[in-house]
Prior knowledge:
Blueprint: H1 12-18, H2 25-39, E1 45-55, E2 78-86, E3 91-98, H3 107-117, E4 123-128, H4 134-142, E5 146-150, H5 158-166, E6 176-183, H6 186-190, E7 195-202, H7 204-225, E8 237-240, E9 243-246, H8 250-256, E10 259-264, H9 271-278, H10 282-294, H11 305-329, H12 333-341, E11 346-350, E12 353-357, H13 363-374
Parallel strand pairs: 1-4, 4-5
Antiparallel strand pairs: 1-2, 2-3, 6-7, 7-10, 8-9, 11-12
Helix pairs in contact: 2-11
Amino acid sequence: MLAETGIDSVTDRTLTRRLPGYPKASFRAALSAACTGHAGLGPASLVLYDVTTLYFETDAGDGFRESGFSKERRLEPQITVGLLTDATGFPLAVGAFKGNEPETDTMLPVINAFKTAHQLTDVTVVADAGMISEANQKAITAAGLSFILGTRIPYVPQVICEWRAQHPGQQIPDHQAFTQPWPATTAEKARGIPYRVIYYQYRHDRVRRTLRGIDEQVGNAEKAVAGKVSVKRNRFIKLTGADKSVHRGEAKARALAGIKGYPTNLTSQTAEFVIGAYHQLWRIEKSFRMSKHDLQARPIYHHKRESIEAHLSIVFAALAVSHWIEHQTGWSIKKFVQTLRRYRTVTIRAGNHTLIAADPPAADIQDVLATITTTAEAPATPAAAVRPPKVRTQLS
Length: 396
């Protein structure tokens, strides 16, 4: 595929010879440096963080591959992978952790190592609230980082209760934002941050989806209590010993419908900026989907940790290249691969003669290839910097 885009690829022998260098931390750091240089990160840059799990076709754990919380509800041993990207979803760093390690414990090691390696003075981390516990928020602030989170709220905020009291019988306008100051920690006050802020946003579309989900759950709870369906996980089913009944506590859930909170320690930014930055998280979710499916990051059949790390290094590099191709061409990487696959050169040997046959690419394909080969930016890091050392250790 590289040859079809006009780029000279290495031979299989060269790839095999250098493969053992891919799991080394120095090689991963050089990849991260090249990606960071391409992304052009500077002070106060936004970075996105999220985690996923990759499972293994095995039954026994080994201290690294361990059974844990699986987003796909699998029982096989797995590892947890943390991915750091810029605001556009371009990969910056990747880290692998034990499969049973809490997700909240993965973020700080990745971000602190990234910040130190690239000498960034301030980074704003955008993540789902499940990634950042209260302890993590304090540690992030102590490390000189800023954060933007998205979280569900357990009660109706005071600012919204006051608005409803002042506007009885009225519906909150769509996309209405509310600001709630929050006491800062000691470390935040030492950095000159007098308080935190929680922005609350109300959206009509979110109300519709939430209320529909509540109605479905209440309906399923009634069917389960009546014995029509089996009892499954449902917050509106109350179990008292062997007795079950419908828990009529959905009034609170309905009052919260449409409201989402966004805690941050960026007090100088507007609500629109904070909420808009959080909504960029779909880009990192897209990167995870691309790596799992288009780049075939799973399942992993390796056994040794160094082989697993090498696998992740290759996927990380491929993810960066794929993201760049999508940006340059406007095509998805799936469309790009499937389209170019039709134009591969075929070598035919008939006796002493060798014939090379190939259909000439269509005009749009030629334009796409020209875009890739002529607008490629010079690498921010010399190619030698991301070349693994020549080692001959056997991987399996």
